[in-house]
Amino acid sequence: MNGSLFVTMMKNNAKTVCSFTFGSMFYLVLIIWLYPYIADSKVFDTMFETLPEGYMKAFGLHAGISSLSGFVAGEYYGLLFIIILLIFCVTTATQLIARLVDRGSMAYLLASGLSRMKIALTQASVILICLTVIITLTTLTGVIGAELFIEENNFATGSFIKLNIVTYLLFFVISGYCFLFSCLFNDEKRALAISGALSFIFFAVDMLAKVSDKLDWLQYFTVFSLFDATSIAEGNVDILPISISLGSAGILLYALAIIIFKKKDLPL
Fold this sequence. Notes:
Keywords: Membrane, Transmembrane, Transmembrane helix. This is ABC transporter permease. The protein has one domain (3-263). 39% of the residues are buried. α5 (68-96) packs antiparallel against α8 (116-149). 78% of the residues lie in helices and 0% in strands. It has 12 helices and no strands. By secondary structure, the chain is an all-alpha fold.
């Protein structure tokens, strides 16, 4: 890893990270602030009772609105936060390697005497640090927001922190395959398209698997099947085996990406 390159890349990505972080914090605070009004509304109770079970499960609403933890997990971590982090991982991973190769900037880095191994390790650390910043500040926002806006606070802070740990590990894997495609392809658009398409397919397959019991076999074809936000937030899931699986897969993907980048022929 190279310190100068790391600082430069962090500066280059600072605006992007700030945008995603503040966007995530804003939506989470908004959802927590709205919760008391929704929890007291009979309209939402009636609406949830009329929705099909598969639909409720697919969107993480099967826990209803009886607790703030389940509501936040279903409304935010079940959909919106996932989309925010998907967009961040796909675009940032592509920019860190494939864009530099595609636009010829990688030649200047290599000409400065940095090895491919150092460059790849530094770029990988940049996206992982950025993910850490976004998820850590979102976690703190959730804990503080629940204290500020909820009078009868039934927010399960411990389970919420566990939910964010699993969220980080899930996106450790997703950013890992996005980074791998960025190292594999010399064309920025191709790396972006394949990373985005695979992420969309994984997400869509997970939704389909939850909609109907006849399609639950699809859960074996998506990484999202390891992430049941509502159950984790309610403390009904042992996150240790999930964390080990996701952590191992993420390490493997990043290691493979760095090896590919080290050995590939670059068009420079």
